[in-house]
Sequence to fold (325 residues):
Amino acid sequence: MTGPRRVGRAVWRAALGAGLALVVAALVPVGGAEVPGLEELDERTLAGLAPADGQPTRAGAERDLGWMDPHGLLEDYAVIDEAGLRWRLDRDAPWSLAPWQGPTAPVRPPLDGLRLLVDPGHYGGAWAEVEQRHRDLGHGEPVREGDLTWATARLLEEELAPRGVSIALSRGPPPAESFSGAAPGFRRESELGQALAERSGDGALAFVHRRSLFGRWLVDRQREALRAGDPFAMFARFDLRRRARRAESFAAEVTLSIHYNTLGPRGQRGLLAFVHGGLLPGELATRSQRYWAIRRLLEGSLAESAALAGELLAAASEELGVPLL
Fold:
């Protein structure tokens, strides 16, 4: 082998080795704190997760877990055995146990005294276009979903309040002024942090993602992309949680969120109801997301929610003459 060729190969091997070393160094976790990512819930709330009074039976928990988690995403965080429902928020955390309770007869509370939180979906008004819930059908006034949901919520209030139902609404009337990006309690940087935490995922690869040099670079890029994105999207994330807190502080026995969809094919009409369940990959990335999933299992109310949703659909379909989808 000639001298130049030998030198060339040696240089190539050295460069290749250095390149591989740089790649490995970029991927290997390094010391120090993880990339900043904010949890929705504080540590006190996360640590306070405990079985509710309505803790289900084993049969109920098996039904709810199959309904909520068809893809097996909770298998490291919720386990059913002879003693009860075992749960944890982190893979390396010790298990907590919620013992099985005996079966109880369902209680149908009377309408008088029922606490109902009505959530008029979206916003309408001057915000309808920025939230992309403003549609011109070619005749008459444009359709604003938030206006329709607000009108429906007020009709419910007028109908049910005289019958003894205690009603609260999750928001006020449709905004009269354009979206400014400001609202009480809304901090955009905090929302950016939570969005990054949810994107980082969970597991070994996520650990590398969050703590490696490459992961930190990637998170910085994601942060800048989010910061340059639509500010309304960050506000909508914040406001969804604000509405949920409103329901919890009101101690609602039933929460009803109303939506209208004018984005489907013309002439298609129908009714749909959604209840919690069907977790998808990426929806358990943070401890807060796992908290809400496990809390639903501990409450044991999924079957009751589904039954109520079915009764509401049937009644609405009969009253309005609109088919179920």
Remarks:
- Strands lie at 78-80, 84-87, 96-99, 115-120, 134-135, 143-144, 166-169, 254-258.
- The two ends are 76 Å apart (CA to CA).
- Confidence is low (pLDDT under 50) at residues 10-36.
